Amino acid sequence: MYVAMLPIRAASVQFNHRPSDKSANLETIRRFARLAVERRVDLLMFPEMCITGYWHVRKLARENIVALSEPVPDGPSTQSLLALACESGMTIGAGLIERSEDDTLYNTYVVAMPDGTHARHRKLHCFISQHMASGSDFTVFDIPQGCRVGVLICYDNNIVENVRLTALRGAEILLAPHQTGGCDSRSPGGMKRIDPQLWLNRNEHPQLIKDACRGPDGRGWILRWLPSRAHDNGVFLIFSNGVGIDDDEVRTGNAMILDPYGEIIAESESVDDDLVVADLDPSLRHMCTGVRWMSARRPDLYVALTQPTGLERDIREARFSDWA
């Protein structure tokens, strides 16, 4: 039996970033990288925009976002990640705000590899600021540890076509960096806001915030849909998320790693910074449900998927408006 993917030890980190404090956030990344090295991790991932901070960006003027942004790969944060990857021997992913050569701003996820190469994914459905653009390319690449990796950032994973196309391009592992949980969803049955005081008082009343983060506004919501992305496409899925106060919302952590059947093989129950580790066994992909289902596809039936229906909306309108 031929299995392209090699066994790999993966880790997912959740942490409470500091808004606009790239130096402090990079130090947190370095601290977790040291812990991951001790646990012989090959692939280490951090959350969406964890280097720059996330939710506060929606309030920033363009010039302030430009000041926070960096080019990729020549900016100092990407160079720091590359140096850390080369030093540690790990492949390391983390999110930031990218400024392209034409001064377009993107929510970007950088994956730095120990051979000095990198990959970059620009979020396909970026809504955090009117001053930031959405990317238009899927991102699938090989890493030196012997597997093929895809990246989709937060909302990208909510659109099922994005995950399927990433899998069709050969991804064996999907990196899914997020800043989610405790969001004020417009959907009546979606997640809702968590009172920030619960997190601030977590030491005095630990069970209250733990119940909130693992309930319907955090883990409960995530498990409604996330396992199906892994199961239906036959991929390992690494979910990394913020935790704690993010401006006026609470991120719920729930860092987890899922196998190609959608089963959770490692998960954090902490409401603070944490790291979870799992060994990914490539033999699980052989004959797994999602891989077999994809082999039964009939692409000739799916032409309508590429045709506009008239229901499509700009991502910011889709995310923030009250349209019915």
What are the SSEs and their pairings?
Layout (H helix, E strand, L loop, with lengths): L7 E7 L7 H17 L4 E3 L16 H7 L7 H13 L2 E9 L5 E8 L5 E5 L16 E5 L3 E5 L8 H9 L4 E5 L18 H5 L5 H9 L4 H15 L2 E5 L2 E4 L2 E4 L3 E3 L5 E4 L6 E7 L8 H7 L19 H6 L4
Helix pairs in contact: 1-3, 7-8
Q: Concise description?
A:
By secondary structure, the protein is an alpha/beta fold. The protein has helices at 22-38, 62-68, 76-88, 160-168, 196-200, 206-214, 219-233, 289-295, 315-320; strands at 8-14, 43-45, 91-99, 105-112, 118-122, 139-143, 147-151, 173-177, 236-240, 243-246, 249-252, 256-258, 264-267, 274-280.
Fill in the keyword field for this structure:
globular; Nitrilase/N-carbamoyl-D-aminoacid amidohydrolase; 9 helices; 324 residues; alpha/beta; 23% strand; six-stranded mixed β-sheet; 14 strands
